[in-house]
Specification:
elongated; mainly alpha; single chain
Length: 102
């Protein structure tokens, strides 16, 4: 009877070990794929266009080095998809306007 319990316990422990190894392998693969798909990032720079008078005033008033402050946030998958769709619409619109009228 004791041998049967030891054998059953061994089978249960072996099954648990195999399941844990399989689960950790799947989790590693999912993480690696997610990191690979998010490796490309884009940056959008926006600025106010200065008039000639503003440029001259800025250049003469400041004798120190000019600095640029950049603020960014990580986009969600939905925001990335919406931006990609908007970009495709804009490119298609620009392509239609660039074609000569027939």
């Amino acid at each position: 009877m004791k041998t049967a319990n030891t054998f059953t316990s061994g089978i249960i422990l072996a099954s648990a070990l195999v399941t844990a190894l399989f689960a950790s392998g799947c989790a590693y693969q999912a993480t690696a794929q997610q990191q690979a798909s998010t490796s490309v990032q884009t940056v959008t720079v926006t600025a106010k266009r200065m008039t000639t008078d503003e440029k001259i005033a800025y250049d003469t008033a400041n004798t120190t080095a000019q600095t640029v402050v950049m603020v960014a946030k990580r986009l969600t998958a939905e925001q990335k998809l919406a931006m990609a769709q908007e970009d495709m619409r804009l490119q298609a619109s620009a392509a239609r306007h660039a074609q000569p009228a027939a």
